[in-house]
Amino acid sequence: MHFSLTDLPHRFYRLLQIERRAASRNRPVVLSRQRIYILPTRYGLVFALLIFVIAVGAANYDNSSGFLLAFLLAGLGMMSTLHTYRNLARLRFRTGKTFHVFCGEAARFTVYVENPGRLPRASVALQLGDEPPVYVDIAADARTEVELSLPARRRGYLPISTLTVGSRYPLGLFYAWSRIRLNMTCLVYPRPATATVLPRQGRRQTEGHFVPRPGHDDFLGFRAYQPSDSPRHVDWKAMAGGAVC
């Protein structure tokens, strides 16, 4: 192999990149504030419209109680935004086990969710692709194991799709979510063939004597072809003439 001193820095850089990628596989994915998005739900929009109607009515009739109710509801909505965001902030996700399955079954992935904060997290939804979400509650300063499933439609290696983490806690007025990617792969085996009829034995033993029984060497008539039959026992002339075996 040809070796040059000019290739040494490049090879050393590639070695560092491989080590970094291998080390990054075990690093947890942390939901920082730059990765969390939040928008009002349809109930939140109806709630905002209700506040607007109350405020307009209070201004029209010069009703201080109406203003007080509108400001109270608006403050409640703003606090709900903070709690919805905080329900996902700083959560950590680590890769777990994968269970190898056959094609057509559901591939299972285990994900560990860590809550380093002092407040518990409630109704955190984890969803893979278009599958139904899995809701979990995580206690303060604890770790929870979550098992997710994904249909294995093709054999081979099945990487985990984008994991969506969402929350509508506490009032359902806002929806906070984040999409993360975990380095997890499940091996999907080919589906086993259906059970077939085994070939019959040619002889059987009775009291120390071999008694002939119907087998490959004795012609008893035509029957349907079995996958375990020898090609030498196929009536090729009948098949060439259009007969169905």
Describe the structure.
With 245 residues, the chain is α+β, with helices and mostly antiparallel strands. It has a domain at 28-192. Helices cover 27% and strands 32% of the residues. The chain is built from 4 helices and 14 strands. It has helices at 8-24, 42-61, 64-86, 236-240, and strands spanning 29-30, 37-40, 92-99, 101-102, 106-115, 121-128, 134-138, 142-151, 156-159, 163-167, 174-180, 185-189, 203-206, 209-212. The strands form 4 sheets. Strands 2-11-10-6-7 form a 5-stranded antiparallel β-sheet. A 4-stranded antiparallel β-sheet has the order 1-3-5-8, with no helix packed on it. It is elongated. Mean pLDDT is 81; it is low at 18-23.
What class do helices, strands and sheet pairing give? Answer: alpha+beta
Count of helical segments? 4
Order of helices and strands: HEEHHEEEEEEEEEEEEH
Low-confidence stretches: 18-23
Overall shape: elongated
Helix percent reads 25-40%
Rg over C-alpha atoms, rounded to the nearest angstrom: 33 Å
Assembly type of the chains comes to single chain
Query: How many strands, which pairing sense, and closed or not: the largest β-sheet?
Result: 5 strands, antiparallel
Mean pLDDT score: 81
